[in-house]
Structure formats: structure tokens, C-alpha cells
Design brief:
7 helices; 6% strand; 107 residues; mainly alpha
Length: 107
């Protein structure tokens, strides 16, 4: 389950990726990691890591405060969630297409 969570929180349609010279820490946190909408029981078992974008903004925030931080900041609350259905689509995304600036499937 941990491998699945890590994978889908960084491999999804619309993810941000940049080479070192163009890399932006804020964009990487907000667009390069997901807000994975999990059912309550899975939020508890995963220590709220579905709020992965908050974790990437500040890794020192304890897991039991991730949701509270997300709810307190409007810019964080407005991040569209990654649903379970959308995360299944992300399994097929394997290659970064530099021209399109997005993850794509193998041809």
C-alpha cells in the first residue's frame, strides 16, 4: 500500500516536472505532488499522507497536522483532489514528454 501511495502521488495526469535549471520548489510541491482524496479509514492508516502537497511544502509538519494545515490555507484547499479513479489512470503514465510537458503512456 505504501508503494502505491508514493507512486500515485507523483505519477498523475497534470503533474509538474522540470529540469534542474527550471525547477521551482513551490510549483514542485503544489503541482508535482497530489492531494489524494482517501476514505476516512485510509486517511487514518496512511497518516493523512493524502495531503502530500502540504508535506512537500513543509516536510516538518507532523502527519497529524497535515489536514489541519490544508484546511487553514485557502490556496491549499483549492487544489483539485486526485480521486481513486484518476489514480488508476496514472498507472499507465510512464514517460515524460518534453514537448508536451506531461506524462504519457508508452506508444
Amino acid at each position: 500500500m505504501g508503494i502505491w501511495l508514493f507512486y500515485v502521488q507523483h505519477q498523475f495526469d497534470g503533474v509538474y516536472w522540470a529540469r534542474r535549471r527550471d525547477w521551482d520548489a513551490l510549483r514542485a510541491a503544489m503541482e508535482g505532488s497530489s492531494f489524494y482524496m482517501l476514505p476516512a479509514v485510509l486517511r487514518w492508516f496512511s497518516a493523512n499522507i493524502g495531503h502530500h502537497h502540504v508535506h512537500h511544502l513543509s516536510p516538518r509538519i507532523p502527519n497529524y497536522r497535515l489536514r489541519q494545515c490544508n484546511d487553514a490555507v485557502p490556496a491549499l484547499r483549492n487544489k483539485p483532489p486526485l480521486t481513486f479513479r484518476k489514480s488508476l489512470y496514472g498507472i499507465r503514465l510512464k514517460l515524460w514528454d518534453e514537448a508536451q510537458k506531461k506524462l504519457v503512456e508508452f506508444p
